[in-house]
Structure formats: structure tokens, C-alpha cells
């Protein structure tokens, strides 16, 4: 059994095109080598002047045209079903952001890995919170751009139990390669059990959960290491240098500064760190969520 319903169509058109290309490559190379020997000056001292041949021209126009039309036909029949998700497909939001995938289920559950039920069609609504990404599941033979503000989707029927890679196939910045996730295909029982289980550790601070779900931890460590952004522990009360409206300033970090740094990170650019890398979270996180994060940050020494 193939991993998804699209494997057959995509693989067939690929092998069809590769086979024809290889036949021509080998054929043309063989004829070329033969001509080099047969018509070298030693064996063929006087060159023949060949005038056109209608028969030959018709053959080498018509045959490739037919072959190319077949390539188009198989490519098209492999691709067209990808545009028509069935009505009973389960709709899941697939959210891309620098640099993390997350998957939001109809009941509100959010997960880093995509867990799906065997033979249940799934439609992924592709949402980007910042820049262009591209959701790619090689084993399923599907790939689609995730465009901010756009409404692209992809769908599939998972047909084989297993775990398959999910990648981002559109270079989206420094830690592009972090956007490695997985789709887990499980049977009905395991799926229902997973769906009703809580993905959040029991005693986790809600601010920490929010940070995990919003990719903060791809760029920020919580114990002092520099990643893309500054580490977020021990910030409260700390003095640091930052550029505000192009002017270097000393800032004493307080609650208001932390809130502003999350809502509008480009208002103050921390020294030695790049501007315009962090997405402004104003509009993505509401005030309650931001205060939970700030509360959590205050607990980190
Ligand atoms: Cu990406």
C-alpha cells in the first residue's frame, strides 16, 4: 500500500518522463558515437551534402509532440485530484511561522506533529503568520506554498500506518531547517486516544505553553544561550543597550518594556541582535496571553 492516495499518480508520471528521457539519452548518444566513427575522414573522405527530408521532419515533429502530450496527460491526471478534497475530509489548520509548524484541530487542540487517522481524508488549511513557507510531505508526494494572507490548502488520504517527515520547502530565513516536523498515521483507537489526551504537561505555566505554541523558543533560549534572539531569563530589572528609533539608549527592563518587546519588537532593537526578524505579535496574541507570557518570563532567573 502507498503512503497516500497521490503516490501512484505522481510516481507514474515521474517514471514515465524519466523512462522516455533515458531512452532518448541512450539512443541519441549511441547514434552520435556511431556517426563519429562511421563518418570520420578516414572512412568517409568526401562529405555528402544532404538536402531536406520531409518524411524525417514529419516523424521528428509528430513523435515528440505525441510523447510530450502523454507526459502532460499523466502529469495532469496525477495532479488534478489534489485540487478536489472530498466533503468528508477532516479540516485541520496547518500554521507555518519562523521557524515551526503547528497543527490546530477542529476541537482547538494544537500539536507540533500532525497525527491523523488511517484512511480518513484530511484537508490542511495552510496559514502563515509571517513569511512564505511551503509544506512538504515527500512520502505523500504533496507540496504546497503557505502564503501569508492566502488561502492555499492541501489534502490527502493517509493509507499506511507510520511516521513521515514534514519539511518546509521554501527558504524562510536563518533557521529554515528547524521547520522539520512529522505526520503520524495511526489507527482509529490510537487517534481517538491521542485526540482526547492533553498535550500540555500538567504543571506547566500557561505562559510557557504559549511560548512553545508560538515559536518563541526557536529563537530564544530560557537559560542564557544566545540563539537568534537574546535569552529571555533574568530580564526583569536588567539594564541593556538598545536602539530606539535609531538612537542608542540604556534601557532598564520592566514589565511595560517586555510587553512592548512582544507586541512591537522593532521599537527597541537589542544591541548586537538583528531588527525585523521577530514578528510583531500584536494581533497574534491578545493582551491576556501576553501578560501570561510576561508573568512566566518574570519567574525565570
Ligand atoms: Cu519555513
Assign the structural class, choosing from mainly alpha, mainly beta, alpha/beta, alpha+beta, or little secondary structure: alpha+beta
- Determine and state the CATH class of the largest domain: Mainly Beta
Strand order of the largest sheet: 3-2-1-5-8
- The share of residues in extended strands comes to 15-25%
Tertiary shape: elongated
Gyration radius from CA atoms, angstroms: 28 Å
Mean pLDDT: 92
In CATH terms, the superfamily of the largest domain is Cupredoxins -  blue copper proteins
Tell me which CATH architecture of the largest domain applies here. Sandwich
Total beta strands: 13
List low-pLDDT spans: none
Distance between the termini: 53 Å
Distinct compounds present: copper (II) ion
User: What is the CATH fold-level name of the largest domain?
Assistant: Immunoglobulin-like
Main sheet: strands, sense, barrel: 5 strands, mixed
Counted up, domains total: 3
Describe it for me?
- The chain has seven helices and 13 strands.
- It is an alpha+beta fold.
- It folds into three domains: 77 residues, Helix Hairpins, CATH 1.10.287.90; 107 residues, Sandwich (Immunoglobulin-like), CATH 2.60.40.420; 94 residues, Cytochrome Bc1 Complex, Chain D, domain 2 (Orthogonal Bundle), CATH 1.10.760.
- The strands form three sheets. Strands 3-2-1-5-8 form a five-stranded mixed sheet, with no helix packed on it. A five-stranded mixed sheet has the order 4-10-9-6-7.
- A hairpin with a 2-residue loop joins strand 11 and strand 12.
- Helix 1 packs antiparallel against helix 2 and helix 4 packs across helix 7.
- The longest helix has 32 residues.
- The radius of gyration is 28 Å and the shape is elongated.
- It starts with 6 loop residues before the first helix and ends with a helix.
- The model has no long low-confidence stretch (mean pLDDT 92).
- The site of copper (II) ion (CU) has 7 residues, from loops.
Amino acid at each position: 500500500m502507498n503512503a497516500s492516495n497521490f503516490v501512484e499518480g505522481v510516481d507514474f508520471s515521474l517514471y514515465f518522463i524519466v523512462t522516455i528521457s533515458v531512452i532518448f539519452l541512450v539512443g541519441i548518444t549511441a547514434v552520435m558515437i556511431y556517426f563519429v566513427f562511421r563518418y570520420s575522414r578516414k572512412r568517409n573522405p568526401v562529405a555528402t551534402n544532404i538536402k531536406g527530408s520531409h518524411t524525417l521532419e514529419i516523424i521528428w515533429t509528430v513523435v515528440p509532440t505525441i510523447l510530450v502530450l502523454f507526459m502532460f496527460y499523466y502529469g495532469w491526471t496525477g495532479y488534478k485530484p489534489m485540487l478536489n478534497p472530498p466533503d468528508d475530509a477532516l479540516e485541520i489548520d496547518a500554521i507555518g511561522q519562523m521557524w515551526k509548524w503547528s497543527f490546530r484541530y477542529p476541537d482547538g487542540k494544537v500539536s507540533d506533529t500532525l497525527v491523523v487517522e488511517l484512511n480518513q481524508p484530511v484537508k490542511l488549511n495552510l496559514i502563515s503568520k509571517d513569511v512564505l513557507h511551503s509544506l512538504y510531505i515527500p512520502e505523500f508526494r504533496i507540496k504546497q506554498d503557505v502564503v501569508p494572507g492566502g488561502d492555499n490548502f492541501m489534502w490527502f488520504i493517509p493509507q499506511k500506518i507510520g511516521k513521515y517527515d514534514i519539511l518546509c520547502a521554501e527558504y524562510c530565513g536563518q533557521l529554515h531547517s528547524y521547520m522539520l516536523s512529522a505526520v503520524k498515521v495511526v489507527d482509529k483507537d490510537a487517534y481517538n486516544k491521542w485526540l482526547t489526551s492533553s498535550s500540555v504537561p500538567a504543571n506547566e505555566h500557561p505562559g510557557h505553553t504559549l511560548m512553545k505554541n508560538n515559536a518563541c523558543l526557536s529563537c530564544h533560549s530560557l537559560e542564557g544561550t544566545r540563539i537568534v534572539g537574546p535569552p529571555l531569563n533574568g530580564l526583569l530589572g536588567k539594564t541593556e543597550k538598545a536602539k530606539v528609533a535609531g538612537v542608542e539608549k540604556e534601557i532598564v527592563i520592566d514589565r511595560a518594556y517586555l510587553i512592548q518587546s512582544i507586541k512591537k519588537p522593532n521599537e527597541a532593537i537589542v544591541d548586537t541582535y538583528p531588527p525585523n526578524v521577530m514578528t510583531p505579535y500584536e494581533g497574534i496574541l491578545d493582551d491576556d496571553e501576553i501578560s501570561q507570557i510576561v508573568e512566566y518570563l518574570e519567574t525565570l532567573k
